[in-house]
């Protein structure tokens, strides 16, 4: 049955590539915007300076959703189209006319889609917050429905982009989207806006230790959790497209770092700074610039433990930049101007 599902998924990817290849740059942009890293680097600062609680919710939902996605991938052993086409040996006589892209060759298992799952959770938080705002201000059902229609459009676009680049089969996108939606609805009611630092330390350690224990347990049972990495390296058309930041442990260290960083940011400055809209816009510009350069800093990939440690620190710093450093700097500037 899964062979049939995978086969039809490959033909769908082929049809999508043939029919929309002129929109290649658009698909690559959409898949980039759906990357779990984008939740921390792009969506978080944009939302935080509009509404503090929703910004915190973005980090909270992104971290837990991506962690659960890692656990599901370890347990479900999902194939990816770009390697399954070669491994299955079903297309020797009639190979599909498909191509790979720089974002294709992710090294983790494919089921469910992490892009769809994290996007489903994070964008639900943002869409529901905007819908609540519009409902309270306009009382218009039509305007209130707009954020939810945008949510559906984003989910469809991200899902199709993942199929287009051969990163996922359609059923992996669907399951990831539905799971992300459910997590977004559930976790949006448990946003840790005023929690103490130890709450985040415990969550950080719980995510890290829980994943490591599961990894050790599965390895002890004879499960080879590096199987997908070997297949990705074997079937990726360009070796330089294999990146360590797509490995399963990269998502784990990213989520744990962001969780600890969120706690530290609220510990240093509980409640944050109250800034008018113009200083907030300045904060957004400075934060975006800072996160862009922080993310561009190259990290050594050998030994892997050093990379993961530095990757953890990088994402632990992100909430500090957005919630503490930049707003504090802008607050000092605006306070000085008022005094003058």
TrEMBL record:
GO terms for cellular component: endoplasmic reticulum membrane. Belongs to the glucose-6-phosphatase family. Pathway: Carbohydrate biosynthesis; gluconeogenesis. Keywords: Endoplasmic reticulum, Gluconeogenesis, Hydrolase, Membrane, Transmembrane, Transmembrane helix. The active site is at 115 (proton donor), 168 (nucleophile). This is Glucose-6-phosphatase. It is a multi-pass membrane protein. Its EC number is 3.1.3.9. The chain crosses the membrane at residues 56-76, 116-134, 146-165, 171-187, 199-218, 306-330. Signal peptide: none annotated. InterPro entries: Glucose-6-phosphatase, PAP2/HPO, PAP2/HPO_sf.
């Amino acid at each position: 049955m899964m062979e049939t599902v995978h086969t039809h998924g490959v033909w769908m990817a082929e049809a999508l590539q043939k029919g929309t290849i002129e929109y290649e740059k658009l698909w690559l942009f959409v898949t980039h915007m759906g990357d779990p890293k984008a939740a921390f680097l792009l969506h978080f600062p944009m939302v935080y300076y509009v509404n503090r609680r929703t910004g915190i919710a973005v980090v909270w939902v992104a971290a837990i959703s991506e962690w659960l996605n890692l656990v599901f991938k370890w347990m479900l052993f999902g194939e990816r189209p770009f390697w399954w086409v070669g491994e299955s040996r079903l297309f020797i006589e009639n190979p599909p006319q498909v191509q790979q892209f720089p974002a294709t060759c992710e090294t983790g298992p494919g089921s469910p889609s992490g892009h769809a799952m994290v996007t489903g959770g994070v964008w639900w938080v943002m869409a529901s917050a905007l819908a609540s705002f519009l409902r309270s201000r306009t009382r218009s059902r039509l305007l209130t429905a707009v954020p939810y229609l945008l949510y559906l459009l984003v989910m469809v676009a991200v899902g199709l982009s993942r199929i287009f680049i051969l990163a996922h089969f359609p059923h992996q996108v669907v399951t990831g989207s539905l799971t992300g939606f459910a997590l977004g609805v559930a976790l949006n009611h448990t946003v840790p806006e005023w929690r103490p630092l130890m709450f985040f330390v415990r969550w950080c350690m719980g995510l890290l230790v829980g994943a490591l224990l599961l990894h050790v347990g599965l390895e002890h049972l004879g499960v080879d959790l590096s199987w997908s990495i070997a297949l990705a390296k074997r079937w990726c058309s360009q070796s330089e497209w294999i990146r360590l930041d797509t490995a399963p442990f990269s998502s784990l260290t990213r989520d744990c770092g962001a969780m600890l960083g969120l706690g530290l940011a609220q510990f240093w400055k509980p409640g944050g700074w109250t800034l008018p809209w113009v200083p907030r816009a300045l904060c957004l510009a400075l934060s975006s610039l800072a996160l862009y350069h922080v993310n561009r800093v190259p990290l050594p990939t050998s030994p892997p433990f050093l990379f993961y440690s530095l990757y953890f620190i990088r994402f632990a710093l992100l909430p500090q930049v957005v919630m503490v450093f930049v707003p504090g700097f802008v607050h000092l500037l605006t306070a000085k101007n008022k005094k003058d």
